[in-house]
Design a protein that fits this description.
This protein is of the alpha/beta class and 341 residues long. It has one domain: Glycosidases (TIM Barrel), CATH 3.20.20.80. The chain is 38% helix and 18% strand. The chain contains ten helices and twelve strands. An eight-stranded parallel barrel has the order 1-2-3-4-5-6-7-12, surrounded by four helices. Strands 8-9 form a two-stranded antiparallel sheet. β5, α6 and β6 form a beta-alpha-beta unit. α4 packs parallel to α5, α7 runs parallel beside α9 and α9 crosses α10. It is globular, with a radius of gyration of 24 Å. The N and C termini lie far apart (78 Å). This is chitinase. It catalyses: Random endo-hydrolysis of N-acetyl-beta-D-glucosaminide (1->4)-beta-linkages in chitin and chitodextrins. GO terms for molecular function: chitin binding; endochitinase activity. It comes from Pedobacter suwonensis.
């Protein structure tokens, strides 16, 4: 009987030992899912994008106090659902760390060729792989969320329905880990397959929409060369909020930190400040060429509009803005009454 007990004990020890060894090899640490339900952040947002081709040293540290969210741009998908190598990973790390140290929520913006998105989203298998890779990237880099910049799903190529599926699948996965999902979308002022390509079924899945109300030369007949007039902002928000029923708390008004001329060539807002022009206005003659942009007065008007009827503002892009007291992001914060000191 003693021998039986002894043999049984040895077997148990061997089994436990074997399990421990196998666990250490095949079961890497996985952070547990949060124990509480996901609750979206419905506070007013001040968002800016940071492109990988910009030098972080060109942005004053104090500017980070003026935003609530920062998106590094861009991470590119492949048609098979994998992700391309991140551009300028050193800059990504530096900018994300700087944002976090200033209490700014961080994310990666995913963009790329339209055909890649169309192909990737058309298959359940590639969508699934893409979602898994995006979730892994966000967890590995301790990001607060993901921004999807697919320009654009369309009813003309059959991608509108697949966009809805993709965004719902992304939302489900990200929200499990309390990470948000946002989307950069068309201003909606041009009727057609692109505007119709963003179906209302996607509204519940996405936390907020960054409405790109710029690059619209010729839309406003009263300001034909102004690519981002105040009237265009009013019309865009009216379409998404009133015509389409987007919830107010999900609407973020995009404001350009750059100007354009009649030939559609762009110049950064900081360049207008450096040229010594009156940036309270919306146009200036620089080197003999007339440019149209959003000066401090119009930026403040747009910030007030967003505060009154939407839930945030967004700037493309962070580096374009001036670092001094003529900053349009500063002007927007002043209009909103936000403390950035």
């Amino acid at each position: 009987m003693k021998k039986i007990y002894l043999l049984t004990g040895i077997c148990v020890l061997l089994i436990v030992s074997s399990c421990k060894k196998n666990d250490s090899i095949t079961a890497p640490f996985e952070p547990p899912l949060p124990g509480t339900p996901y609750v979206p952040d419905n506070n007013f947002k001040v968002i800016s994008y940071f492109p990988s081709y910009r030098d972080p040293a060109g942005i004053a540290d104090s500017k980070f106090k003026m935003i609530t969210h920062l998106f590094y741009a861009f991470l590119n998908p492949n048609p098979d659902g994998s992700l391309a190598a991140l551009a300028q990973p050193g800059r990504f790390t530096a900018v994300i760390q700087k944002a976090k140290s200033n209490g700014v929520k961080t994310g990666i913006s995913i963009s790329g060729t339209k055909s890649i998105f169309v192909t990737m989203a058309a298959s359940a298998a590639t969508r699934n792989l893409f979602v898994k890779n995006v979730l892994t990237f966000s967890k590995t880099n301790n990001l607060d969320g993901i921004d999807m910049d697919w320009e654009y799903p369309s009813t003309s190529d059959g991608s509108a329905d697949n966009y809805v599926l993709l965004m719902k699948e992304l939302s489900d996965s990200l929200h499990k880990y309390h990470k948000f999902l946002s989307a950069a979308i068309t201003p909606g002022v041009y009727a057609g397959s692109i505007r119709d390509g963003l179906k209302s079924e996607v509204f519940p899945a996405v936390d907020f929409f960054n409405i790109m109300v710029y690059d619209g030369i010729g839309w406003d007949k009263n300001e034909s060369i102004q690519h981002a007039s105040y009237n265009m902002a009013v019309a865009s928000l009216n379409y998404w909020l009133n015509t389409r029923g987007m919830p107010r708390e999900k609407a973020v008004l995009g404001i350009p930190a750059y100007g354009k001329n009649a030939n559609n060539s762009a110049k950064a807002y900081r360049d207008f400040v450096a040229a010594g022009v009156d940036v309270s206005l919306d146009n200036a003659l620089v080197d003999g060429i007339q440019f149209y942009f959003n000066g401090t007065i119009t930026t403040r008007k747009k910030a007030k509009l967003a505060k009154d009827i939407a839930n945030g503002i967004m700037f493309w892009e962070f580096y374009h803005d001036d670092n001094g007291d003529k900053s349009i992001i500063r002007a927007a914060n002043d209009e909103l009454g936000r403390n950035y000191n």
